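W.,

You were right to be curious about this one. When I first looked at the sequence I had no strong expectations either way, so I just let the prediction run and decided to look at it fresh. Below is the sequence, 410 residues in total, followed by the output.
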Amino acid sequence: MRTVALIGTLDTKADELAYLAERLRAHGVEALVIDSGILGDPGTAAGVAREDVAAAGGYTLEEVRAAGSRGAAVSLMREGVTAVVARLYAQGAIHGVLCLGGAEGALLGGPAMQALPLGVPKLLVSPCASGRRSFGDYVGESDMTVMHSVIDILGLNAISRTIFENAAAAMAGMVRNAGAAVASLGERCVGVTMLGQTTPGVMRMREAVRRGGWEPVIFHANGVGGPAMEHLCEAGALDGVIDYTLSELANSLMDGIHATGPDRLRVAGRQGLPQVVVPGCVDFFNQGARDTLPERYRGRKTYFHNPVATLVRLERDEETALGQLVAERLNEATGPVQVVAPLRGFSLADAEGGDLWDPEADRAFLDALEGSLRAGIRYEAVDAHVDDPEFADLVADRYLSLVPEPARAV
């Protein structure tokens, strides 16, 4: 019997959680209810009581309740929810997680699901899965599925029953027929970063790397993709990296919407993995729809990427700072690193005649990068554009020269 951890607040959603548990069991899946409630009395018994959840995070329930604010209490309680779910998964007691909750309930269950390996079924049902909301705090870098509950989660009616039945059927299908943790991506897998602005180059490079006996795994460099790739490096699932797209570093410097944390571009080096690094998309940072662009950026070069995304050009002094930042992080690497830098533009929009074309700013980045790299990191400037076929072929060749050739059958 497969078991699903069912996370929710039994003081406000007892009937709804009981209905979900019933529907899961109707599909041949056991449900283990984890009570993430804090204030009111639970409306029904839980498989893991809230007192035990709080204790798993290192607190008593009274300490959580006395945290000083609703937000502070949620922050403490979600430590316990995460610890309980991680322990149950490690013991083999659960095979997937379903969280039912509003704003706070979703934040209580989201981190617990994020803590589980890629491939373990995770489903969040919430009215917050709508509108102009950011889902980063809920989903993180996980493979979570998010289902909009349409109405608030209070009471059973024709709409909520339908949503809950679909959620139960989806979760049961995943844990019974498909869900399994990704322990390894297989041998000779290389992580690659890409955005639409570097897609032509990455597509060309990908085929050349595959012909060399490696399997590229592509990550969208949108503030989540780069860190997700690096987490797989830490997990031993990737054997190397071709960091073709560094826009997340530009966003971090400029506080763009694709910003990441301080570990970006450090993890593969810390693991000693071979890296080829290309400064793709270092010419811009990401903002929202054009009509939402802050006033301070409206005099800059911009590129209309799509109705909800505007690319904003970095200026010369910012490019200098970015080049130094990239070098600083690469200098920490313990494994082999090679930088391959295009001299004719870093993105599709950063080409001669393009909306983001600024050769002086590009040169400022390249000078700062080359001048700040430590001895032992090879820097190669190439008279080509980042998306040119010959440049992409060269990047593939440089990666293949860093790594051992595949063993041949005798």
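Here's what jumped out at me. DSSP finds 14 helices and 14 strands in the chain. And, maybe more interesting for your project: The chain has a mean pLDDT of 93.

Coffee later to discuss?

I.
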